[in-house]
Design a protein that fits this description.
The chain is built from five helices and seven strands. The chain is of the alpha+beta class.
Length: about 180
């Protein structure tokens, strides 16, 4: 496996945590087809709301990921659960503010994986404040952010491509 992104603002020391079987590592090329399949799930897109225009467009997916992986301001790690690719966690700058986000394949929902992955990610990402946005009806994501110390700091609206309409969102902050 060739590491796509082995450098960046955080130094990550990979370790095997047998207490929860959630491990973060740098993204490798072999992860991308898995991410593509995961992001094609219509229920996952509905929950995430703010998604790609056409999840089935593999060419657009590959272009998007090439940009992500070559942008030094984006920090992204693959989430492994029991040695399988479960999704990813990332941080990026939007409108001058550092944000966090995550994606899990449906097979990994409801197991506390996103929370454990974000907790681990945050130990390496020292910049504060951090922000996150989530649809107001995405209760699972709201719980993950609150468990990780984020609190609601505002509300907004945005066009959710996955839903084809403007929706309300919460803005979360970690100080």
């Amino acid at each position: 496996m060739n590491s796509i992104r082995g450098e960046g603002p955080i130094m990550y020391v990979e370790k095997k945590d047998t207490s929860n079987d959630v491990v973060l590592r740098h993204v490798v090329r072999e992860d991308l087809p898995i991410f593509f399949r995961q992001q094609m799930d219509p229920d996952a897109n509905w929950m995430a709301a703010f998604t790609r225009r056409d999840p089935a467009d593999e060419s657009a997916f590959n272009e998007h990921w090439a940009k992500i992986l070559n942008d030094p301001a984006i920090i992204i790690m693959t989430i492994l659960y029991q040695a399988r690719v479960a999704g990813y966690v990332l941080s990026f700058v939007m409108f001058g503010e550092r944000e966090v986000g995550y994606w899990l394949g449906r097979d990994y929902w409801g197991k506390g994986i996103a929370t454990r992955a974000l907790v681990e990610f945050l130990t390496h990402l020292k910049e504060r404040p951090l922000f996150a946005h989530t649809a107001k009806d995405n209760k699972a994501s709201i719980r993950v952010l609150q468990k990780c110390g984020f609190s609601i700091s505002g509300e907004g609206k945005g066009f959710a491509r996955a839903r084809g309409e403007e929706i309300e969102e919460y803005i979360f902050t970690l100080t």
